[in-house]
Amino acid sequence: MRVPAGWRRAALPSAGLVAVGGLGYGLTKLSDSDAAANWAQLASVALAVFALVPPLISSWRQRQPGGTSTIEQIDRAERTLRVLVREQWREEIVMRELDQPARLPVRWKISGLDVMDQDERIDGARLLRSWFGLGRVRFDGRTDRMPEMAGRFRKLARRRLVIIGEVGMGKTTLAVLLLSELLKEHREGDPVPVLLSMSGWDPSDEPVHRWLARRLRENYPALRASGFGPDAARGLVTYRRILPVLDGLDELPRPVRSKVVDALNDASAVEALILTCRTSEYLAAVNGGGGAPLAGAAVIEPRPVKSADVISYLLDRLAPGQRAGWAELLAALKSEPDGPLAEALSTPLVVWLLYKVYIETRANPAPLCDSGRFDTADAVTEHLLDNLVQATFSAAPPDDDPDERHEHDHPFRPQRSWDPEEARGRLAFVAHHMSETGSRDFRWWHLHRSVPRRTSILIGGVSVGLTVGTTVGLVSDAVVALRSPHAGSLRDALLFGLAGGPVGGLVGGLTGGIILERLKGYSLEPAYANLRWRGNVTGLAGQLALGLVTVLPVGMVAAFALWRVAGMSSEVGGLVLYGLVVGAIGGVTLGLNKWVTTPLTNDRPQGPVTTLRRDLRLVYGRSLTFGTALGLAFGVAGTLVDGFSGLLRGAEAGIAFGLAGGVVFTLTFGFTGASSTYLVAVAMLRARRRVPLRLMTLLEDAHRVGLLRQVGPVYRFRHERLQDRLAHLHRHPGENR
Questions:
Q1: How far is CA 252 from CA 249, 258, 284, in A?
Q2: What order of strands is seen across the sheet that includes strand 242-247?
Q3: N or C: where does the chain have the smaller number of CB atoms within 10 Å of the terminal CB?
């Protein structure tokens, strides 16, 4: 009979505890040292392993949202979501310079490819079509006239739009501008447009409505607030309160794309939507392998940018003193409209690259006119991509005016100075990491995937185990020698702690590392501490029960060790009382720590930096709390069973144990937090000169200057081609044209 995976995972930490407990007991029987020191060694081993139990249990016990929010709660959640999305994309549009008055006019038209549903399902019944069979669906528009495009979108029968085009043609830019315009001209009954990356989604494993609700909870954690009910995100999807703007169908594997389109066609909870995809990938998805077009959706594609529009755009942005140096390039665009330079600049991406690399830095663009060096459009584009990071950081120094009251407070300038070449090398590694993991999203809590798993576990087990064992061995031996009724030399106790503590800690650390190695699917997500009682009573009761079930057996094992080894009580009743006190206090503390660990929530969208800071505060706050409470439990319980001579000595011993326990759990339980694994990965990668210690500061600065965009708690490169090129440069560091 096959044992369920959950029970197998639960058995691993239990087996580890039994094995290490038996080892510790054997050591105490074989050693000639006094009983107090033996007990200290056993405590150091047990604590080192016990600290790893809670995160291991949480790895297989994942709670899912449940229940249904009321209509009033969903209404409030919708209003909040609208504000969050508006604030998020207002800032992004400014940082991506999409709000310029003289915007590059990219023209869009209905696709001539066979990728659309019947006209009547897209644009409704029209007189000429229904009576005479004349006419076709129209959806002409320009990115510099977004109110007209938003109005045309609203007139579609089902408000479904697919934006196709080749790389760099501005599909995502159009989707963002359309989202912003729909929010700006909000009308009663309009759903909230929300842009979501499709990377990593497979509708065979996760239905449309469930995936949408999960992504809403991830990208907008404010929806998890108790005031919106048990599951506001699911309610928003069910009642069609959102307009999904789904970016990047082409980023999914080929077999999955047609499944996504079919799933969207079958999803009753999804009516209006906007979808972006490369042309060839969308054509294959809807015409190959039994696929079908997105029902009721208009499909539009861009026209190449005209050289005259590019020239006008560049002239609007050139300072009077710059125009003389650009005369040769502008003349080449006029005289060779089919040349490699004009071909490259026929896409909005390359026009923006030219602006960043040459106009902002006031560099001379004459080298681009060298037809021998840049004989193809790809050569021009790759040259601009290769120099984008350096040019951007060179043109955007930090706001370090000493007369300013709030130094580095400018939202669109870097927080600190970066060497442009170093910045490019570090971002190239980040791009390589993302490409190796098959993602367009940089999640800081996944950075550990760039470090060999077994190496990190070995290093972590040895370093944490030695630190924990030495700390607990020294402190516990000193406390026992000074405060217990058993006579003993402080010097002997400290020497024994130095000898036995590291051994016990190393055994415990390596044992925990082996357990973590077996849990291949073990993953951590950012969280924060939520101390609100309202709506969480049931969850609190469940977590307290789990804590008691987990810790009570450990308390009884510790009591047995003290009874048999240290002789702190000769009565069986004292044994039971000690175990109950330690187990109850430890169990309640563990339950409270688990209960307060909740997904991030606030009244603003949570960025990557905010999620990291809050997770750090949670991890180390609960670690110190857990360790201190458990140490006090040992001291109080020892007093109750006459192990210490008086309440004062018991309290003093408990405080000392608590401080030691706080250090222990900070170094073990703390290192099982998402933020802690990130810090360990950064330290290991910094030693290999892959990333700076202030990696998040670099990424935030790259976001400020427009190289990255922020989508909820993750970063994405402004364009996938930039990510791909930087990843290529990381693999071939000598290449730079």
A1: 6, 10, 13
A2: 141-142, 107-110, 297-302, 160-165, 273-278, 242-247, 192-197
A3: N
Query: What's the whole-number mean pLDDT along residues 675-684?
Result: 83
CA distances from 410 to 74, 430, 708, 710 (A): 36, 25, 17, 17
Q: Is 575 helix (H, G, I), strand (E, B) or coil?
A: helix
Percent of the chain with pLDDT over 90: 28
* Lowest mean pLDDT, pick from 346-350, 586-590, 729-733: 586-590
Nearest to 657 by CA among 635, 624, 626: 635
What is the model's pLDDT at position 368?
Answer: 92
CB 465 within 8 A of CB 506: yes
Q: Between 58 and 392, name the one with better pLDDT.
A: 392
- Please report the pLDDT score of residue 150 as a whole number: 93
Question: What is the rounded average pLDDT of the residues 189-202?
Answer: 88
Are the C-beta atoms of residues 258 and 285 closer than 8 Å to each other? Answer: yes
Indicate the DSSP class of residue 110: E
Alpha-helical runs (H) found in 299-376: 307-317, 327-335, 340-344, 348-354
Contact by Cβ (8 Å): 59, 492: no
Count of CB atoms within 10 A of residue 132's CB? 8
Mean pLDDT of 488-508: 54
Q: Is 481 helix (H, G, I), strand (E, B) or coil?
A: helix
Q: What are phi and psi of 107, to 5 degrees?
A: -95, 140
Q: How far apart are CA 255 and CA 355, in angstroms?
A: 38
Helix (H, G, I), strand (E, B) or coil at 244: strand
- The H or E element spanning position 246 is strand 242-247
The pairing of beta strand 273-278 with beta strand 160-165: parallel
pLDDT of residue 29: 44
With contact defined as beta carbons under 8 Å apart, do 644 and 485 qualify? Answer: yes
Sequential DSSP letters for 407-466: TT--TTS-SS---HHHHHHHHHHHHHHHHHTT-SSB-GGGGGGGS-HHHHHHHHHHHHHH
The reported pLDDT for the residue numbered 320 is 82
Which residues, other chains included, contact 66 with Cβ-Cβ below 8 Å and sequence gap of 6+? Answer: 230, 231
Cα–Cα distance between 309 and 306 in angstroms, integer? 5
| C-alpha dist (Å) from residue 592 to 52, 534, 542, 615, 664 | 17, 15, 10, 16, 19
418 close to 701: Cβ distance less than 8 angstroms: yes
* Averaged pLDDT score across all residues of the chain: 74
**CA separation (Å) from 453 to 336, 495, 634?**
54, 35, 36
Q: Find, among 475, 474, 555, 472, the residue nearest to 508 by Cα.
A: 472
When mean pLDDT is compared across 229-238, 257-266, 462-471, 713-722, the lowest value belongs to 462-471
Tokens read off for 333: 């665009």
Tens digits of per-residue pLDDT, 103-134? 788 999 999 898 998 887 887 555 444 443 44
Query: Is 42's pLDDT higher than 50?
Result: no
Tokens matching residue 663? 């250090």
Nearest to 718 by CA among 300, 396, 389: 389
Tokens of 421: 């070449």
Round to whole Å and give the CA distance between 431 and 433: 5
Element (H, E) at 630: helix 608-640
> Where on the phi/psi map is residue 296: left (φ > 0), alpha (ψ -120 to 50), or beta?
left
Length in residues, the chain:
737
- Worst-scoring range by mean pLDDT, 547-551, 577-581, 664-668? 664-668
DSSP H helices in 51-170: 53-60, 71-95, 119-123, 127-132, 146-154
Indicate whether 529 pLDDT > 80: no
pLDDT at 416: 86
> Which of 49, 40, 41, 55 has the alpha carbon at shortest distance from 20?
49
- Confidence band, pLDDT 50/70/90 cuts, at residue 175: very high
